[in-house]
């Protein structure tokens, strides 16, 4: 376990020692005694928060407060509209590639319509059972193992996305959001309308929005690493520094300089130390037309 310091607050952060059984799943464990109005910075993944501690965890959203275990589609926190707070927070945070999220969750991220959803509304009693089991075990590695078994079982039983949709998503991620979106339909042999419709209904966002989030995520982590905004804008495909500034403001409600200090981003190197390597490797694989995808 590592400790991440942000101001006077200390976070204990733990990572799994083994990769998930399911490609497109990453997770980390957090124990935070005092979580004070943390800005949730948009991310291209579907976010699954499994709360199991005896403390309180709250997400303040535009639609009100959400507590406990939660699910949100890609782009959670867009516009700076979501803040996390609580005391003695203990949770496993799972990032699901949108390609596998429908199978794992039993519902398409499109069904959330941009909202933060209580996990119980999707999983019913199973949400309470996993909370109890995570609380009963004593080590983070056991918690990761329990979580991974559950996700793998649900993934195998759930509906797969179309392989053409999966291929389009992976092309966007491999291109760091700079893939020519209008060319994706031709690459998979569909017309534009069909791909856009299937992509939106199965992954929860249209291709252009997906590309915007992927490019932003790459740029934001370069800002956190200390690169200047002008250099980041040029390196990540923005027209200029003003374009980067507008995108960052629209997605986070903050300036690039402020986003560079956000703990939600800064903790990534601890919580997801192979974040970029794993994402690129997964994204570059062509879809396999196995029994679940034919």
CA-atom Rg in angstroms? 18 Å
SS-derived structural category: alpha+beta
Q: Any idea what the shape is? A: globular
- Major sheet summary line: 9 strands, antiparallel
- Uncertain runs with pLDDT below 50, 5 residues or more? 276-294
Commentary on this structure:
The chain is α+β, with helices and mostly antiparallel strands and 294 residues long. Helix content is 44%, strand content 21%. It has 14 helices and nine strands. It has helices spanning 98-105, 120-123, 125-136, 140-157, 163-174, 184-188, 192-203, 207-224, 229-235, 241-252, 256-259, 263-266, 268-271, 275-283; strands at 2-6, 9-14, 25-39, 46-51, 56-61, 64-67, 70-72, 83-96, 116-118. Strands 1, 2, 3, 4, 5, 6, 7, 8 and 9 form a nine-stranded antiparallel β-sheet that branches. A hairpin with a 2-residue loop joins strand 5 and strand 6. The radius of gyration is 18 Å and the shape is globular. Mean pLDDT is 89; it is low at 276-294.
In short, what is this structure?
This protein is α+β, with helices and mostly antiparallel strands and 294 residues long. It has 14 helices and nine strands.
Tell me the layout of helices and strands:
Blueprint: E1 2-6, E2 9-14, E3 25-39, E4 46-51, E5 56-61, E6 64-67, E7 70-72, E8 83-96, H1 98-105, E9 116-118, H2 120-123, H3 125-136, H4 140-157, H5 163-174, H6 184-188, H7 192-203, H8 207-224, H9 229-235, H10 241-252, H11 256-259, H12 263-266, H13 268-271, H14 275-283
């Amino acid at each position: 376990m590592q400790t991440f310091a942000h101001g006077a607050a200390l976070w204990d952060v733990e990572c799994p020692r083994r990769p998930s059984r399911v490609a497109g799943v990453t997770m980390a464990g957090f124990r935070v005694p005092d979580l004070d109005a943390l800005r949730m910075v948009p991310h291209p993944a579907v976010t699954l928060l499994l709360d199991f501690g005896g403390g309180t965890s709250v997400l303040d959203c535009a639609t009100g407060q959400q507590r406990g275990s939660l699910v949100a589609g890609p782009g959670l926190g867009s516009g700076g509209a979501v803040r996390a707070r609580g005391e003695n927070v203990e949770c496993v945070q799972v990032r699901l590639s949108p390609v596998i999220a429908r199978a794992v969750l039993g519902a398409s991220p499109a069904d959330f319509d941009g909202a933060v959803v209580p996990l119980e509304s999707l999983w019913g009693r199973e949400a309470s059972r996993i909370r109890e089991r995570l609380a009963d075990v004593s080590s983070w590695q056991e918690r990761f193992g329990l979580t991974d078994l559950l996700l793998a079982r649900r993934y195998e039983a759930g509906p797969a996305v179309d392989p053409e949709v999966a291929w389009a998503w992976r092309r966007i991620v491999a291109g760091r959001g700079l893939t020519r979106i209008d060319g994706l339909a031709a690459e998979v042999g569909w017309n534009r309308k069909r791909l856009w419709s299937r992509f939106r209904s199965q992954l929860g966002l249209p291709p252009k929005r997906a590309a915007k989030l992927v490019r932003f995520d790459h740029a934001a982590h370069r800002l956190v690493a200390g690169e200047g905004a002008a250099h980041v804008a040029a390196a990540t495909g923005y027209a200029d520094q003003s374009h980067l500034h507008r995108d960052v403001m629209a997605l986070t409600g903050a300036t690039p300089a402020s986003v560079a200090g956000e703990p939600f981003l800064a903790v990534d190197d601890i919580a997801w130390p192979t974040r970029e390597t794993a994402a690129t490797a997964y994204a570059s694989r062509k879809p396999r037309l196995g029994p679940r995808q034919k």
